[in-house]
Amino acid sequence: MTSIASVTLDVADPTAARRFYTAAFGLDTQVRFRASEAPSTGFRGFTLSLTVSQPGTVDSLIGTALDAGATVLKPAVKSLWGYGGVVQAPDGAIWKVATSAKKDTGPVTRQIDTVVLLLGVADIVASKQFYVGRGLAVGKSFARMYVEFDTGSSPVRLGLYRRRALAKDAGVPPEGTGSHRLLIGGDAGPFTDPDGFAWESAAALASTS
């Protein structure tokens, strides 16, 4: 089964980025950093999500992210599906913190259940077929709207969303140009997908980190 070991974010200052993500979310091996000044404007075409167990955990993680220097794109609110909000890290990456629960049922923790990478794509069907051809198994699929791949116990899960819908969910305009400033490390790479998202072998990334 194909898995994703980590995502690498292109940042101006890897040390500062590492400091932010440790303070904001307590993330360690799931997110790596690479020094880069690759030009990028507007929406980079992806978001990262942290799925947690209850609203208090959402508030805790968003609170420490803001304290560490993040900015709010969407404040945490209740909705039909649960509770969540969206912030943007100092390096420009967009993070959603959410839960399907609408009220706390126990002590607030900072436990992250899953890290999900959502790629905004131009053609869901074409991108789905491309990834299936690369060995990824489809876990859930909702017509031409959304695809979630079965990556087992992978540290990072993967989904495809229409680019405009993903930007709307993140609270930003869909337009963007230049680099995605993202490298996906898994056992399906190396390759570049139809929307320009680059993959590298997890082993190769580990040897250079």
UniProtKB/TrEMBL annotation:
InterPro entries: Glyas_Bleomycin-R_OHBP_Dase. PANTHER family: BLR2520 PROTEIN. This is Glyoxalase. The lineage of its organism: Bacteria, Bacillati, Actinomycetota, Actinomycetes, Kitasatosporales.
